[in-house]
Amino acid sequence: MFAGGEALVAQHIPPDHILPAVAADLIEAGFRQYAPTLTRLASPHEMAGHIQGALDAQRPLSVVRLGDGELLTLAADTVLPGEQVQELAPFLPYAGVPRSTPDIRAELAEAIRGADWIGVPISRAPTFQGLLFPVLRHFGIDWSRLNLTSSTINYSLHHSGLLLPVVQGRRVLLIGSQAVELGALLIGRGVHVTGIIGTVEGVADIPRVMQQTAEHSFDIALVAAGIPAVILCRRIAGELGRVAIDFGHLADKLVTGELHL
């Protein structure tokens, strides 16, 4: 707490001076100054409305989410040394990126630039918001022009009781390693699952998955495929004209019973 507060204040105090105010007082005063720059994120009810509106109008829509995996992939050899990213994110191969390369970073940045809605982290931790804005600046993405919601919008839709109403009465395609089990759960709740595409083997597997996706008839795709889900959702909307939602680990939690439909 000292390093993140009083030590930072001390850097601005001239020699031979003391300041009666404590860091908490200074933060409160500074926050009041910056409060007009607060940016509101779309709520779960608003996002459900956007998704249902696109489905009703048969209009393409992509909802992608940026977590530490996506941000660290983009940060490698750009805003952070690649070696540091490897230390911070040993999970990246599991998340679909064996190694962050310029091509992968460019494809991921382009997907973010073109997505309809982008979920961003609320956490101000170093690998979440601490990377979000530096990474977007590096790739020339003006965050103020993006449609933003929370990066946990998948969970928020579920917890708000909005997930089933969004998909019921729609033709649903499931993509990801839990697709079969998730499909059984959804079918049990009366959801019309028209297709299942199993495990996505990282970003290199995206062309195959897109080819298989194009062979299915569906209204909305729920994609739980790690970092490749961002690219897949954007391409499904842009190339196939469908609604695509980055479903993430919500699929795992539903399948294991940690969460219930």
Description:
This is GT-D fold-like domain-containing protein. Residues 43-254 form the GT-D fold-like domain. It comes from Paenibacillus taichungensis. This protein has 261 residues and is an alpha/beta fold. The chain has 13 helices and seven strands. It has helices spanning 6-10, 23-34, 44-56, 68-75, 82-88, 102-114, 129-138, 153-159, 163-167, 179-188, 206-214, 228-240, 250-256; strands spanning 61-65, 117-120, 148-150, 171-176, 192-197, 220-224, 243-246. The chain has a seven-stranded parallel sheet with strand order 3-2-1-7-6-4-5, with helices on both faces. It is globular and about 75 Å long. The mean pLDDT is 96.
Distance between the termini: 40 Å
Helix content: 40-55%
Sequence of strands across the biggest β-sheet:
3-2-1-7-6-4-5
What is the count of β-strands?
7
**Would you identify the regions where 5 or more consecutive residues have pLDDT less than 50?**
none
Content of β-strand? 5-15%
Structural class: alpha/beta
Shape estimate: globular
Summed up, the helix count is: 13
What profile does the largest beta sheet have? 7 strands, parallel
Average predicted local confidence, pLDDT? 96
How would you summarize what this structure contains?
The protein is α/β, with parallel strands linked by helices and 261 residues long. The chain has helices at residues 6-10, 23-34, 44-56, 68-75, 82-88, 102-114, 129-138, 153-159, 163-167, 179-188, 206-214, 228-240, 250-256; strands spanning 61-65, 117-120, 148-150, 171-176, 192-197, 220-224, 243-246.
